[in-house]
Amino acid sequence: MAGSLLLEFGIALTVIAVLGAVARRFGQPVIPAYIAAGILVGPYAPTSVAGISLQLVSDSAVIGTVAEVGIILLLFFLGLEFDIGTLVRNRRRLSVVGGIDLVVNAAIGVGVALAFGFGPVGTLLVAGVVYISSSAIVTKSLTDAGWLANPESEVILGTLVVEDLVIAVYLAVVAAVVGGGGDVGGALVTVVQSFVFLAALAGAAHFGTQYVEVVFGADTDELFVLRVVGVAVLVGGVALAVGASEAVAAFFVGTAFSGTDLVGRIENLLVPHRDLFAALFFFSVGLGTDLLVVADVWLLVAVAVVATTAGKLASGYASGRVYGLNERRSARVGLGLVARGEFSLIIATLAATSANPTIRTLVPAFAVGYVIAMSFVGSLAVQYGAALSDAFDAWVGERQSL
Amino acid sequence: MVIYEADVPGVGKRYEVETGDGERAVVIIHHDGKRELFRRADPDADAEKLFDLTAEQSRQLATSLEGTDFQPLDLDDIDVPLGGALMEWVEIPEKSPVAGETMGSVHLGKQTGVTIAAIQRGDETIGSPGADTTLQAGDILVAIGSRSEQNALESLLETGSVEDSD
User: H/E element holding A63?
Assistant: First the structure.
C-alpha cells in the first residue's frame, strides 16, 4: 500500500512538472496548469483515454495533508512579506482604494450569488472568491511585463496589501462560520474560540518578534528550515484543532518573522519549499474537482467572469484616479488586478469542509472554474495591457474631443 | 542628487535616480536577490527594461560604474603630495645637448630648481646622483620640483637651455 502511494505521489509530481513547464513555455500562469494536472490524473473525469485509466492518483490523506502545508506556507509568506509600513504611510489613500476594491467587487459577488439562489453562507463564500485578486499571478505578471518600474504598480501592489489584510480577517470569520456547523449557537462558540486563539496568536507574534532571531537563528540552513517550517505547521495544526483558520494562524506566524533580519534567509531557503507545497495544493484542488459539477455551474462561472472582470477594471480605474494617475495608467491598474488565484482556492477548500451539501459541492466547483478562467484573463490582461490601455486612452481622447 | 527609495510590497525595493532631463534610472531589487534595471525617459513614459541581473552581476556592474578599478584622469592634474612639488620621470632624449655632460657641468639643479632623486639607466638605478654623475641619452631622471621647475628641466634636456623655446 505504501508502495502504491509513493507511486501516486511520483505521478502527481511528474504531471505537475510537465504541465507547469507547458504553461511557462506559453507565458501562461502555472496555477491553472497545476489544477489541470490534478483533474487529469485524479479520480473524476477524464477517467480514461483510449481505454487507459487516468484515475492514477487518489484524493488521499497524504496529498490532502501536503496541500494543507502548501496553504500554510502561502499564508506564512503573506504574513512575512506583509508590508505594514506601506499600509501606515499611505493609510489615507489606501483605505479609499481598498474600500473601493472591496465594496465594488464583493458587492458584485453578493449580487451574483443571490441571483443564483445561494444562502447567506454560500453568498459570503462566493463574494470572497470573486473579491480577492491573486497576489502570486499579479506580481508575476507585473514583473514579466516590466510594469514594476511604472507608477501604476504602486497602486496595484498597494491594493494587494489591503486585500491581504482583508483576507486574513475574512478567513478567520469564514473558517469559524463554516466550521461551526449549521446552528447559530455552534457557530457562535466556534467564532469566539477561534477569535480568542487568533487574538492570542497575533499578540504573541507582535511581542515575540524580538525573540524570534534568538530562537530561530540556527547555525545551519538545515536546522533553520526545520525550525521555521516546524513552527508554522505546528501553529497551523493547533489552530485547526481548536476550530480556527490554519491559514490565518500561519499568516500571524509570518508577521512575527517579518521585519527581522531572518527575512532574507527565509526568502532564500523557503521559497522553493513553498512553491513545491503550493503546487501540490493546487494539484489537490484539481484532484477534488469533478468537471461534471463545474459544467453544472457554467452559467454562474460565465456571469461571474464577465461581471467581476468589469468590477476589477472599474475599481482599479477609480483607484488609479485616486492616486492621480492619468486615464491610461488608471486603466492599467484595473487590468493588473483582474487575476484571481490562490486565495479564491483557499476559500474553496474551506467551503469543501462545509456541512451543507450544496455549499460543499457547488462553491468549490464554481471557484475552480472561475479561477481557471480568471487566471488566464488576468494574465493576458497584463500581457496585452499596454496595447489595451493605449486603446482605452485613445477612446477617452476621442470622446473628450467630440 | 536625489535617490528615491520605495518599498514594493511582495516584491522588494525600488530605487530611482534622476539622470537629467526628467530621465530616471530605476532599479528594482527583488526579495530573491534578482535585480532589474530600467530606464524611464520622462515622467510620463513607460519604463523600458534594460537588464536582468543577478546579485553577483549587479555588484560587478556597480564596481565598474563606481570606477574602483579604473578612473579616467587628466595626467596634467595628477598631484603627488610633496607639498607644492611634483615627482616626474623624465627621459633624456637621444640628441640631448646635455648627454655626456655631468650634472655639475650643466648646473642642472641650479638652472632648473628640481632635485634629481635618482637616475634609472637600464636595469641600474643610481640613487642620489651628485654633481659628478654623467648624464647619458636614455637615462630616466626622477625629478622633484614644482610644475615650472619641471618644465624648465624638460626644456634643458631638449635644448640645453632653460628658456622655453616657444
Answer: helix A61-80
As a residue count, chain B comes to 166
pLDDT of residue A314: 96
Q: pLDDT at residue B73 above 60?
A: no
What is the chain A residue with the closest CA to B50? Answer: A146
pTM of the model: 0.78
Cβ contact, residue pair B49, A271, below 8 Å: no
Between B101 and A344, the more confident residue is A344
| pLDDT at position B75 over 80 | no
ipTM computed for the complex:
0.78
Give me the helices (H) in A288-356, please: 291-296, 298-322, 327-336, 342-351
Which residues of chain A neighbour B10 with C-beta distances below 8 Å?
Answer: 81, 83, 135, 139, 157, 160-161
- The predicted pLDDT at position A310 comes to 96
- The residue among A358, A315, A353, A356 whose CA lies nearest residue A334 is A315
Element (H, E) at B61: helix B55-66
- Name the residue in chain B with its Cα closest to that of A269: B32
Residue A307's pLDDT is: 97
* Architecture of the domain whose range is B75-159: 2-Layer Sandwich (3.30)
Chain A / chain B CB contacts < 8 angstroms: 60
Write out chain B residues lying below 8 Å of A160, CB-based.
Answer: 9-10
A161 touches chain B (CB under 8 A): yes
Q: Indicate the burial class of A98 (C-beta count within 10 angstroms; 0-12, 13-18, 19 or more).
A: buried
Residue A155: the pLDDT is 94
Residue A1's pLDDT is 47
- Contact of A59 with chain B, judged by CB distance below 8 Å, is answered with no
Rounded to whole angstroms, the Cα distance separating A277 from A273 reads 6
Domain ranges of chain B: 3-66, 75-159
Contact A351, A182 (CB under 8 A): no
What part of B 31-90 touches A (C-beta under 8 Å)? Answer: 31-33, 36, 38, 40, 44, 46-49
Q: For chain A, which ranges sit under pLDDT 50?
A: 1
Provide the CATH topology of domain A2-401.
Na+/H+ antiporter like fold (1.20.1530)
How far apart are alpha carbons A39 and A34 in whole angstroms? Answer: 9
